[in-house]
Amino acid sequence: MGGSLYVGAVPSDGEGWFAAAFDGDGLAEAGAHEGIGACWTHYEETAARILVGAPIGSVGSDGSPRRCDELAREVLGERGHVVVDPPVREAARKRRYPAAARVHERVTGRELAERAFELADAAAALDDLLSEVPEARDIVAESHPEVCFTAFAGEAPVHARSTAGGYAERMRALAEFDHDAPPAVQSAAEAAGDARVTVHDVLDAVALAYTARPGRSTLRTLPPEPPTDAEGLPMAIHYRAGEPL
Fold this sequence. Notes:
Helix 7 packs across helix 8, helix 7 crosses helix 10 and helix 9 packs across helix 10 (about 200-210). The radius of gyration is 17 Å and the shape is globular. The strands form 2 sheets. The chain has a 5-stranded mixed sheet. The longest helix is centred in the C-terminal third of the chain and has 14 residues, at about 165-175. It has 10 helices and 7 strands. The protein has helices spanning about 35-45, 65-75, 90, 95-110, 115, 120-130, 145-155, 165-175, 180-190, 200-210, and strands at about 5-10, 15-25, 25-35, 45-50, 140, 220, 235-240. The protein is about 40% helix and about 15% strand. A hairpin with a 5-residue loop joins strand 1 (about 5-10) and strand 2. It is an alpha/beta fold and about 240 residues long.
């Protein structure tokens, strides 16, 4: 890896993607991007690692859930419902939920949750990026903010991220991992400017960026030895911790 930035990027609750980037000294920059393709273009020359908060890799025709999602739900316990099984590759490219649901059920034999369909655009865009730009496969990898917060704090969040208690929990987890996290979050939020970005987007992107950046703990995956899908894409959720979750 020749770059110097460690990036966390998430699909925004508003629109587009939001990314935060760390270098060896701390937060280097943050900002909104039209899509993951634009985010890649912005960082392709400078990023050593980009962790994204969206699915990479699709389940096959056997219909079984991705193992990384199953393990993430186990790690999160009562909060495990926030990890949903993404639509299969063909379904992710449908523009409307009914069509995607029909394709997903035909391929997997299982229903497609509407919350999972919300991941479709991000999953399809990532699929296109990693298919069309092979060098991105060495840089871009999947993570999940809730798993990252759990790894930082040593326990899963109790409150929903949309609540005041949830915000406090996640900020505390970041601060326990790095005492400079609160001002980094503030700076990242200010960098969003007028973009339609929520405070959750900022927290999630910073958590992924901290996970991407080398530190005193180890970058790990769920599962430890990730399988690949039919296109050779690894199906793994990355997190950083001293011990495996």
